[in-house]
Amino acid sequence: MKVSLSERAYVKLALHAAKHPTRDALGALVGRVKGEDLEVTDALPMTHTPLSVTPTVEIALEQFAHHASLDGDQNLVGLYLANERLGNVGLGPNVCVVADVIRNAAPNKNAIALVVDAEKLNDALDETESTTEPKNHGLILMRRIGDGSTWETVGGQSGVVVVEPSATSSAKALFASPDALRSLVDFDDHLDDPARDWRNPGVDGMLAK
Known about the structure:
By secondary structure, the chain is of the alpha/beta class. The chain has helices spanning 7-19, 55-69, 93-105, 118-126, 167-175, 178-183, 187-192, 201-208, and strands at residues 2-5, 25-34, 37-47, 75-82, 112-116, 139-143, 152-153, 160-163. It has a single domain (2-208), classed as Cytidine Deaminase, domain 2.
């Protein structure tokens, strides 16, 4: 499978991970299913607190799914996770439950999980535009294949993540801006202050400049 990740999606998940480097940062992925492939158009930050499957998570997913449906042919197609412990690139049991909920509702049950490898993400942002080798975007692709009960890492012939060319340079620029990190809002922040918008129009505006 091929997963195409937009600049907007990559920047938001990277900012979410950077804003909470010592906590688990979890969010949902919005996009379109195209046969076996996925086009990820946006990332919706959900939480940066210890995760349990609670009504709060259910409410967040309901609102996220409704937001995705407003664009007609889009759905929740996965999640992303940046673990609090450096070097941990797995999915915990509670995250797997959330991933299963999203997968069961996705078209043809075609959904993914992207795990952020913080060290490799930083390496990706340090690369120059002239680098001739393929960029390592710091993302590990995981799927639950067939009737299997576990989410497994896939790559090579089985799956590849292709990130929009401008994404890493945009992320690098926004990482250097304290305003960008402050502007990134997840659903936890929204619950603390309903005036803060988890759809992140502020980040969208920065990317549009």
